[in-house]
């Protein structure tokens, strides 16, 4: 019988789990432990409207009225499942019958001088916003979603932007057709994009590429992915997956009884195999899965819905559901790839693997429903 739950990580997956526990009728004690000092907030606007100054921190707050005991500004430093205790950085213990690991991820860093930016937290976004001034030269290291979104926001603020990507293409998971379309959009907006260009050094005033090219920079953002926050689990017996995330089954159960996981930190078992998915909707979905599994209630399983994410760049919204494979082809079914908007499907030899759209939400919704039925 579960009478108390400690949720570690007070962000999207953590608050979602706490809310789901209450919705499922759990009336025991829920303690929500969060390393950040503020109430939970939504991260997607950090690279978009918050960075652009269009919304404030108050606008991006997540649920304020959860029925939980808050332990904010406190970091979990260890987990002792035998004692059913989460040890905090002030030396206190939170005891609970079940624990949910929802500690997300931190921005991956590379060797760089002080002053180089990353973007994961509200503080990161505020620091970056303060220096994205008209005419400033921004070099974004990493052509993934966060890097490309900041590039787009930067252009809107009158910043000169260069994206440097070590791989052959920006936004590689989208495949050559869709990624190529977005690359053209960046270039049309005046962003210099350099691909196949590993960075050899970052100096206080430049980013130096492997071939010796120096890109002068007033501001450098390193956006090269995220690392799951699992250090505090060392010695707990909770197994990690090969990719560093917390290994979990289709019900978000870790290898230790009564310890569950959800969100960016979790490498859960999807129908197609284990995966760590760093997208908003995944954190929301896995919170539901973990809460139901914890209470032993019938509930959803990981991957019941195909993965979904969106990305906003230059006022346009890209949406994608499913899992495009590296060799899949993208077939446009509405609009035109180089037009203002389009919707289409990714296909391998036998089936549709994913659907995507740019500024075609209705067509996307219809395609996504079909994907669900596959
Ligand atoms: C800039 C940015 C833009 C994004 N834009 C999009 C988008 O457009 N579309 C999309 O689908 N997804 C987007 N995402 C991804 C989405 O925000 C994440 O998938 C989501 O935040 C994951 O939630 P989470 O709760 O699992 O992890 P996190 O949001 O990382 O939260 C984990 C929390 O745990 C805390 N924590 C860590 N370690 C400890 C510890 N030891 N003790 C206590 N607390 C701890 C952290 O401080 C943090 O508050 C974006 C992410 C970022 C950073």
From TrEMBL:
Keywords: FAD, Flavoprotein, Oxidoreductase. Residues 4-287 form the FAD/NAD(P)-binding domain. One of its GO terms (molecular function) is oxidoreductase activity, acting on NAD(P)H. Coiled coil: none annotated. Its cofactor is FAD. The keyword Transferase does not apply. InterPro entries: FAD-oxidoreductase/Apoptosis (IPR050446), FAD/NAD-bd_sf (IPR036188), FAD/NAD-binding_dom (IPR023753), FAD/NAD-linked_Rdtase_dimer_sf (IPR016156), Reductase_C (IPR028202). GO terms for cellular component: cytoplasm. Residues 308-371 form the Reductase C-terminal domain. It comes from the Bacteria. This is Reductase C-terminal. It comes from Amycolatopsis tolypomycina. The lineage of its organism: Bacteria, Bacillati, Actinomycetota, Actinomycetes, Pseudonocardiales.
